[in-house]
Amino acid sequence: QVQVVESGGGLVQPGGSLRLSCAVSASTLDSHTIAWFRQAPGKEREGVSCIGGKDGEAYYADSVKGRFTVSRDIAKNTVDLQMNNLKPEDTAVYYCAVGRVLLIKLWPFIETEYEYWGQGTQVTVSS
């Protein structure tokens, strides 16, 4: 069983930054895709960003391109999400997920392909 733990959420003003971190219990970063999803109140969960296991290539939802950056540290089994220029619409619970994605270049955020999930961390963007 792979344990996934998120950290780094909090309250930030619009235009501010936060860095989320995802710690994975097993050495899976070079063989699995690690993704960040989020779910805002009253909305469906959506994919935000992911980083591929084999080549470390990053993928982003259009809504966060240019503002969010995903990175990984294979030695530490961690994946970070640097979030800059945050907007109120970024307010959500952010989840880290681990899985094997079949066609990552086409469909990087199919939830059923992610086997292990964290409990989530709250990000609130408000003045």
What is the strand and helix layout of this fold?
Layout: E1 4-7, E2 10-12, E3 18-24, E4 33-39, E5 46-51, E6 58-60, E7 68-73, E8 78-83, E9 92-99, E10 114-117, E11 121-125
Parallel strand pairs: 2-11
Antiparallel strand pairs: 1-3, 3-8, 4-5, 4-9, 5-6, 7-8, 9-10, 9-11
Largest sheet: 7 strands, mixed
Order of helices and strands: EEEEEEEEEEE
- Level of helix content? under 10%
Question: How many beta-strand elements?
Answer: 11
Question: N- to C-terminal separation?
Answer: 40 Å
**Shape field:** globular
Determine Rg (CA atoms, Å): 13 Å
Question: Which class best fits the helix and strand makeup?
Answer: mainly beta
Mean pLDDT: 95
